[in-house]
Structure formats: structure tokens, C-alpha cells
Amino acid sequence: MHKKSLLTILIVVLFTFSLTGCKQNKKQNVYQTVKTSKTINWGVKADTPLFGSMSIKTGKINGFEIDLANALTHEMLGKNAKANFVTTTANTKIQLLKNKNIDAVIAAMTITPERKKQVEFSKPYFPAGQSIMVADKSSIKNIKDLNNKKVLVVKGTTAADAIHKFAPKAQILQFDDYGQAFAALKAGQGDAFVTDNGILAGILRDSSGYKLVGGNFTNQPYGIAINKGQTQMCDHINQALTKLEKDGTYNRLVKKWFGNIPGMNIKEIEKH
After folding, report:
1. Which of 167, 191, 213 is the last residue of a domain?
2. Where is the Solute-binding protein family 3/N-terminal domain (predicted)?
3. What is the CATH classification number for the domain harbouring 247?
4. How does the average pLDDT of the chain come out, rounded?
5. Exposed site from 40, 48, 159, 171, fewest CB < 10 Å?
6. How much is the pLDDT for 82?
7. Neighbour count for residue 107 (Cβ, 10 Å)
């Protein structure tokens, strides 16, 4: 064979191989990666009492979702596997997932049709809903009373959309995190703070002078988010969740974190 022809064939083969390699990298299988590394990088909250918050004493994040992520990791990958926690916010969690900085998000994340366009969701693991926090002296009793009132929400959550739907005349003020929103409520910058019932219950646990009113005005359960196309990872998370529900682990964690919280009915959360 002519040398030039041989060289041409060699270049084509190398070029084709390099293209194939790129495609394979882009189609990274997250479950196979975590199975090999024995580590799952979880995106979690660090500002959400009961679910995920930073302990001043230990310097570590703790909460219901932290314990659940640890249990899921060990169920999926074995007792010696590691759950690594990366702090996220309502605004950053999807981007961190898309950038492959994390493998999954377990961060009080409501399952919505809009988010399903961007990520895969596990089956629901917590029956959340939007609720209203006000000062004890407030006359606000339900969602309709928020019309013509200043309502505080956190950016990137589903609260603003829910308020627009049920109280379209409310004036919405958005903050970067739950701590800022609650501080604004205490400072009198708004009449009410709206977000998920469990998150508000966690804030109330450590505060006085405030109350929840009107019950949940939406049904918006939480799911674990995984990158689009990572169906194997999603399937294994669902299988692990089912196992933890059946063996009683899930209910033990619910009782541990929500059993003594005023306004929380753990019978509505537990799996039976």
C-alpha cells in the first residue's frame, strides 16, 4: 500500500476514535461512576433547619435529608460507601447538577413540571406544601388575606408562583435564602413569609413570636433530582428509597426530626 494512503487511513482512524471517546465522555453514566468510587456527591441545604443546616457546635451539616442521603448511599453502594455533601441554594442546585459538580440533589426540592424539563426526579420522599408564617399579633389567617400585603419569599423556590395563583394582588419581595427572608419578617419589611411547611416549622423550632396560619395551601412533594438521562441512577435511588421505607428506616428518621415539632403531624409524613 502506498505510504500516503496508509497515512490517510491512520489519520481517519485516530480522528474517529477521538470523536467516539468524546461522545462516551458526554454520556457519562453517573451510577457507574459512584459505584466505582463508592461515593455520592449530594447537593444539600445548609440553611434549612430540620432538613439541612450547619451545626455551630460541630461545623457539620445535619438534618433529615442528611440522614436520608447517608442511608441511601449505604443502601445503594454498601456500608463502607461515603456520602459527600455540597452546599446548594435554591438558585444554584440545578446548575451544580448540570455542571456535574454533584451527582444528585436532596435539598427540599419541589417536583414541578418546569423542573422536570431540566432534571430527572425520584419518586416523592416528603409530602411538602406551601404555608404561611406571620407574627403572633398578625390578623392574617389564610392565603387570601395576603392580597395587598407584602409577602417574603426565597428566590428559586415555588413560593412566588403559588402566591401569584392564590393571592394575585400580593406584593412579593424576594431574598437569597431563608435566613434573610425571616430576618426581613422580624424587621417588619413584610407581612408574611411563605415557603414550604417543613422549612417554616424548622425556623419556628428556634424562634418565638411567630406562627403558621391557614394550613398548607398547595400540595408540592419533594423529590431527589438527578441529571437528565441518568435513568440508572434514578432507578437505584428509587429502589433504595423503597427499601428504606419498608424496613422502617424512613419512619425512624421522620420521628427523629419531626416528632416533637409543633404544627407537624408525623402521621401524615410516615410511610405505612
Report:
1. 213
2. 39-261
3. 3.40.190.10
4. 89
5. 171
6. 98
7. 27
DSSP of 106-124: -SS-B--HHHHTTEEE-S-
HEC per residue, 241-261: HHHHHHCCHHHHHHHHHHCCC
* % pLDDT > 70, the chain: 90
Measure the CA–CA gap between 192 and 138, rounded to whole angstroms.
9
Q: What is the pLDDT of residue 27?
A: 67
Name the nearest CA neighbour of 236 among 23, 28, 33.
33
Is 250 part of a structural domain of the chain? Answer: yes
Model pTM score:
0.79
- 180-186: long-range contacts, CB 8 A cutoff, minimum separation 24: 180/154, 181/152, 181/153, 181/154, 182/133, 182/207, 184/152, 185/133, 185/135, 185/152, 185/210
CA-to-CA separations, 47 to 75, 125, 127, in angstroms, rounded: 26, 20, 20
Do 82 and 194 reside in the same domain of the chain? no
Is residue 10 assigned to a domain? no
Domain limits for position 64: 30-127+221-268
